[in-house]
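Morning. Coffee machine broken again, so started the prediction first thing and wrote up yesterday's gels while waiting. Chain of 294 residues, entered below exactly as on the submission form.
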Amino acid sequence: YGLVGSEMCIRDSQIASRAGLGDTGTAYLVDSYGFYVTLPWYIADSPLHVIARNDGVERVLQGESGEARYTNPRGTEVLGVYRWLPDVAMGLLVEFEQDELTQEINQIWALIVGVAAASLIVGYVVTRQMTIWLVRPLEKIVAAARVVQSGDLSYRAGIDRGTPHEMRDLAQAFNDMASSIQQSHRELEARVEERTKQINEQTKFLRNVFESVANPLYVIDVETYTVLMANTAAQELRKVTGTITCYALTHNNEMPCDTLEHPCPLREIKRTRKPAVMEHVHLDDEGDLHYFEV
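Came back before lunch.
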């Protein structure tokens, strides 16, 4: 009866030996003489009746532990892991067929590639969405800044509803700045227009005063002696055309007045910083002489 109980226990362990080892994996024990204590699934015999013969068994019987590729009794390439158990004087071997391992590795690689592809797709979608949310609003703000810089102060940056609030705040800040610049520009234009109007009125008044003088009246540049303005009385005496100096206009001279008969009043004014009155003889367009106090 003891032998029958032992056989049942061994058979039970043989059945349990493939748990978690896949379709072709197997685990078995051999004793110190090389007999199967538990059988691989592909051997239909009784334990302790068949001697195990392969490289893994030979190594484990030498007391070694490790892993190796070798051929099992079926003639199939396997990857075996073996360990010598000195406490029970047995060797434990676990073997997987090479084809199944290759298939599982390929499945793992396929899973890795699939996960990588999915990650790339997700990354692309996320990047595209980030571009829509961040880059495009920034491009709109930059474009609006360039339009405003070109002179169109009424242009504003338009932002879509789905834009992140940070971009909306930035666009609103830019639009507020543009509005402030536009308002300042309008106020400046209004002040310039008002000032121009005042200057024109003053110029008109001075021109009227200038023309109301009955005697010839000139405005002369004290540095270059160029005649800048001449009233109607001066124009009737001698027509002022183009750029001409006072000494060329009134004396037909090429140099400023510098004689006792005709001292230069401008030099005297510059020297003394006071008004000066002198007598000069001027020529008209006909060559006639006219005596003036200058």
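Residues 98-149 form the longest helix (52 residues). Going to sketch it on the whiteboard this afternoon.
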